[in-house]
Amino acid sequence: TRKIPLQERLLEKDHLHPWMPVIPEPAWQLYTVRKDHTVSYKGNFYSVPQGTYQKGVQVRLTPIEEQLHIHDDQGILLCDRLDFLL
Q1: Phi first, then psi: what are they for 79, rounded to 5°?
Q2: DSSP labels for 22-51?
Q3: 43-75: per-residue pLDDT in tens?
Q4: Among 43, 45, 44, residue whose Cα is nearest residue 35
Q5: How far, in Å, CA of 69 to CA of 82, rounded?
Q6: Angle at 86 between CA 43 and CA 65, to 5 degrees
């Protein structure tokens, strides 16, 4: 372009906005709680606290690093599983 970078920056600096990183929300899905207080996820069964099961109850599973976070339908953390590997 044969333009001098410093001069171009001086022309454009009034139009620039500060950089703000975008942090994506973790992906989660709803899974049905089984009668034996477990949830099936990727071929494995993970236990949830006793008393969680009721007919039609679903929980949110969110894989975060090497943990599987299990939330109820209102987003309250029920438990997390350390033995989860991606």
Answers
A1: -170, 170
A2: --PPPP-EEEEPPTTSEEEETTEEEE--TT
A3: 888 888 888 888 888 888 888 777 888 888 888
A4: 45
A5: 9
A6: 135
pTM here is: 0.59
**Cα–Cα distances in Å, from 74 out to 42, 46, 77?**
23, 20, 9
Q: Contact, 33 vs 18, CB < 8 A?
A: no
What does the block give as tokens for 33? 């709680």
CA distance 30 to 58: 6
How many other CB atoms are found less than 10 A from the CB of residue 33? 21
